[in-house]
């Protein structure tokens, strides 16, 4: 059995950031990844300026293979049912359009952690002074012993389920699916990620260019018909935006733990087990999760290092140190912060003010109608209540954290 300082589960961006901090501090770190690397990851690959800065500062300039075509993204364009469109550029200029398969592999290799791919975490036992980790490597059982474990294994985290079996039932879930189309004609700018605030299309609808094709994606809830929802969007894009696409050639989808960061259902772990990245609940309101995965991952690694240096319990250090990232992610859901403080690093207020007053009124009305759509979900009602209260009462209460 291999005995190391830290085992990280998952070889994504949060894992790379955590491993970097641990290895830099001289801790022996193994990263377990269930898939063979480099592995596919469903993601639009739109990186916020903060995520870009993190990658540059910690891993250096991105290699060309870690980028899709177009290689960069200027920002996000919001579209409304009243046919007003609002392009918003990221502060500081375009950011790289990440090809997650290669960008994640590049980052994890540069972290210096020892990578064990085709190795699925299956369970753990926390014995207080060490954790026993069970996994399957190429189908064969394998065990590791570590002082700490970091679960960086994404939204449907098995590490969380091994310490809190009921957690998945206590948070909101929804599904996203996207289809890839060859393009006949597409007037949507390939330089932006496009997002529709349109109740008739669904609660999460997007499109963007990638490697010569157009992606059309929709969010849906359990029991909804993905194909029908997607076709509805394709028809709408053709009719309203003049986007003409060939039938799709590929599709994919997954479940997402959307909303824990709004309602404070973050989960940070127990005993010697830390949870980070999207597994912990870090994801903002437009589904951007890479920058908070990187930052929370780095903090989990730093917390392990600090706990050892100060001889303090690792949970105590992590919960204290992660508060800044919680605040930052939660602010990205806060309507007042969005209106006045630009937490998404793109200028929503300026884009709104650039519109004539009639269009501005239409946008505000459309936004309200869109937000009300969330009332149809049990969790949506709770989210709305918290979103409305948050600007009034602050709302960074930690009482709901696990
Ligand atoms: C359709 C879609 C589009 C998105 N677009 C964007 C975007 O444009 N910009 C953005 O910032 N974010 C986007 N996101 C969100 C972003 O992809 C995630 O928030 C981010 O990847 C989270 O990173 P992570 O490190 O926490 O975990 P993940 O990226 O989810 O990685 C978890 C890793 O753990 C591995 N793993 C899981 N279980 C096990 C196990 N049992 N044993 C071993 N390994 C395991 C997985 O294989 C994976 O490699 C998008 C998400 C989706 C679904």
C-alpha end-to-end distance:
31 Å
Using the alpha-carbon principal axes, give the shape. globular
Strand content: 25-35%
What percentage of residues falls in helices of 4 or more residues? 25-40%
* Average pLDDT, all residues: 91
Bound molecules: flavin-adenine dinucleotide
Structural class comes to: alpha/beta
SS elements, strand count: 17
Low-confidence stretches: none
String of helices and strands: EHEHEEEEHEEEEHEEEEHEEEHHHHHHH
**Major sheet attributes:** 8 strands, mixed
Structure commentary:
By secondary structure, the protein is an alpha/beta fold. The protein has helices spanning 13-24, 49-59, 100-111, 158-163, 226-241, 290-310, 314-321, 323-331, 335-340, 348-353, 357-373, 378-393, and strands at 2-9, 29-32, 67-73, 75-79, 85-89, 95-98, 114-116, 119-126, 131-137, 140-151, 174-185, 192-196, 205-210, 213-220, 244-256, 269-270, 273-275. The strands form 3 sheets. Strands 1, 2, 7, 8, 9, 10, 16 and 17 form an 8-stranded mixed sheet that branches. β12 (192-196) and β13 (205-210) form a beta hairpin. α1 (13-24) packs parallel to α3 (100-111), α2 packs across α6 and α6 (290-310) crosses α7. The protein is globular, with a radius of gyration of 21 Å. The two termini are 31 Å apart. The model has no long low-confidence stretch (mean pLDDT 91). Bound molecules: flavin-adenine dinucleotide. The site of flavin-adenine dinucleotide has 38 residues, from α1, β8, β11, β15 and α6.
